[in-house]
Amino acid sequence: MLRKAIVSVLVVLAGMVVTPASAAPAACGITWGSGAKTSPDLTSAPMTGLRAGQHDCYDRLVFDLRGTAAGYQVSYVDAVYEDPTANPVPLRGGAKLQVTVFAPAYDENGNPTYHYADRTELVNVTGYQTFRQVAWAGSFEGTATVGLGVRARLPFRVFTVDNRVVVDVAHSW
């Protein structure tokens, strides 16, 4: 009887063995991290569009440019501010990404090259798993800045391809 009880306890304890977190694979293989990402490349090619898309493991924001892709600076911040007024940009979500693309949103004559209907809702991200809001923060001195409200501080990556700057934010860690 005692032997049966000991065997039962050992079986229960064996079922409670937990694999350490470090041994668990990253969700979708994402290993991007949440630290600031920067590329110093400059361009005079103006921003012409902004769009978003949903993927299995991440949400994507794409800046379209008229010419060679520009550099960028993307980081989590406590608040996003309009450039050059420094007025706060309200954003929904548990975390805020400030996305600055080193390209103007105007041409050499100061005419806008990127047009939006509502500066607080640049792209409709309703139903997205990670994105909560995309809002305009301004274009000044050759840069364009957008506030990206996200569900939480999640890993992200930034890269350029042809005439685009791409920001992907993972759905989970």
Helix content: under 10%
- What's the pLDDT, averaged over the residues? 87
SS-derived structural category = mainly beta
End-to-end separation in angstroms reads 47 Å
Largest sheet properties: 5 strands, antiparallel
Q: What best-fitting shape do the alpha-carbon axes yield?
A: globular
The CATH class label is Mainly Beta
Which strand order spans the largest sheet, edge to edge or round the barrel?
Answer: 1-4-7-9-8
Show the helix and strand layout.
Blueprint: H1 2-15, E1 37-39, E2 47-54, E3 58-65, E4 72-77, E5 80-81, E6 88-89, E7 95-101, E8 131-140, E9 143-150, E10 156-161, E11 164-170
Antiparallel strand pairs: 1-4, 2-3, 3-11, 4-7, 5-6, 7-9, 8-9, 10-11
Account of the 3D structure:
The protein has one domain (32-170): Immunoglobulin-like (Sandwich). Residues 1-26 have low confidence and may be disordered. Helix content is 8%, strand content 39%. The longest helix is centred in the N-terminal third of the chain and has 14 residues, at 2-15. It is mostly beta strands.
